[in-house]
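User: Second chain of the day. Same drill as before.
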Amino acid sequence: MATSTRFVPVAKVGDVAPGEVVVIEAEGRSLALGRTEDGRFGVIDNVCTHDGGTLGEGELEGDCVECPRHGGRFDIFTGAVCALPPVIPVTAYPVRVADGRVEVDLSVEPVTEE
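Assistant: Same format as last time:
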């Protein structure tokens, strides 16, 4: 079953400096938008799977966002865990830049643990 993409604008390119991560809201979802030093954008869910920290308030080092609560780290492009204590990844979303806007594909369903 094919899923259609649904890109929505979430920021202007100039809103996020290289090496920065920020909190954004898109259609009721809280997300962390990061821009690496080489200018690539990545978006992951904003909540750390270890202890609920706000990832968009953390630091971006390389491709990984560090949670400000306990130092867990997540890849801004894949959502994979880069450093413990979290062991569960977060959801990553496809990103594109069009006409000076950063757009995120919200057709991706967030991962939920049951």
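The domain at 7-105 is CATH 2.102.10.10 (Rieske Iron-sulfur Protein).

User: Great, on to the next one.
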